[in-house]
Automatic annotation (TrEMBL):
GO molecular function, one term: kinase activity
Protein keywords: Kinase, Transferase
Family listed: Belongs to the carbohydrate kinase PfkB family.
The keyword Lipoprotein is annotated on this UniProt entry: no
UniProt-listed PANTHER family: CARBOHYDRATE KINASE PFKB DOMAIN-CONTAINING PROTEIN, HEXOKINASE FAMILY MEMBER
This protein's name: Sugar kinase
Domain Carbohydrate kinase PfkB, chain residue ranges per copy: 5-296
Pfam families xrefs: PfkB
UniProt keyword Cell cycle present: no
Length: 316
């Protein structure tokens, strides 16, 4: 792949009841896919930039579902590995009450935990603009963590920017184990995304604006603190930045942070100034929360203006 974004991690088969209520009362489940890294790749591809995702899936129908869905969104998955020794991991997302989502994972010792440094194909990364990582992958296993470290080292050697979304998952690893690993990754990344609570996990306290500046002092040249409905603040190239969230009715907040990251990185690769990067990121996040699903609501380029230009409910 020439130019664009490369990312990797574990994408799972996603089962969701079609209606609000407890899972035990569901008569059927909808089949989809979900994974933070592939979400970002899909978001970037929808905005017209090249994107590639790789990882491990089971050599089974759910694994083929994962690859088919990602490929169908225009993302290159040729470097993905089909692992015949373990089944594809699962996640179940239910909405027990309106506006509340509960996610359960079945991924222990799954394909993502079997990632290894040899899975990082130099030919895929060579020529890319950005390698995007999350704090989820190093939490999966020691070998997955080593794979992340190896990819960062290779990216630095090839002159590829490294992007990191902290994406801390307490269910995967405790804070005392996560913090030193994540701080190490922060020191070696160029672009950092974190929530204000995740900044505290990294040992940085204060108002979000202060957190962004202090995190930039650890190494990244661009830091964005995602604040959900409160927008985002950051420290980019030695100066503070901020953007308000767009007012929308939130239907499903899962995936909104990935949409935000995708919008920001797509505009970064396009050479847009930070104000445009943040505006697109905010619009992508707003689109994502307006639609059920982890990534289904991510906008295409020509849909970005819909949230700010609507004068009614019918588009003709």
């Amino acid at each position: 792949m020439t130019g664009g974004l490369v990312t990797f991690g574990e994408t799972m088969a996603l089962f969701t009841p079609p209606t609000v209520g407890r899972l035990r009362h569901a008569g059927s489940l909808m089949l989809g896919i979900g994974g933070a890294e592939s979400n970002v790749a899909i978001g970037v591809a929808r905005l017209g930039l090249p994107a590639a995702w790789f990882g491990r899936v089971g050599a089974d129908e759910l694994g083929e579902t994962v690859l088919t869905r990602i490929r169908g969104e225009g993302v290159d998955v040729d470097a993905a590995v089909r692992d015949s020794e373990v089944p594809t991991s699962l996640m179940i997302k239910e909405r027990p009450q309106p506006g509340i989502a509960r996610v359960t994972y079945y991924r222990q010792d799954g394909p993502g935990a079997r990632l290894r440094p040899s899975d990082v194909d130099e030919s895929v990364l060579r020529g890319a603009q950005i390698l995007h990582l999350t704090g989820i992958t190093p939490a999966l296993s020691d070998s997955a963590c080593e794979t992340v470290r190896a990819s960062v080292e290779l990216a630095r050697t090839l002159g590829v920017l490294v992007s990191l979304d902290v994406n801390y998952r307490a269910a995967l690893w405790p804070a005392e184990r996560a913090t030193p690993v994540l701080r190490e990754l922060v020191r070696h990344c160029d672009v950092l995304f974190a929530g204000d609570d995740e900044a505290e996990l990294l040992g940085v306290t204060g108002a979000p604006e202060v957190q962004a500046r202090r995190l930039a002092g650890l190494g990244p040249r661009e830091v964005v603190i995602k604040l959900g409905a409160r927008g985002a603040v950051g420290w980019v190239d030695g100066a503070p930045v901020a953007v308000d969230a767009l007012p929308v009715e939130a239907i499903d907040a899962v995936g909104a942070g990935d949409a935000f990251v995708a919008g920001y990185l797509a505009e970064l690769m396009s050479g847009e100034p930070v104000t445009e990067r943040l505006a697109t990121a905010a619009a992508c996040g707003a689109c994502a929360v307006s639609v059920p699903g982890d990534w289904e609501g991510f906008p295409h380029r020509d849909e970005l203006s819909l949230l700010t230009s609507r004068h009614g409910t019918v588009i003709r």
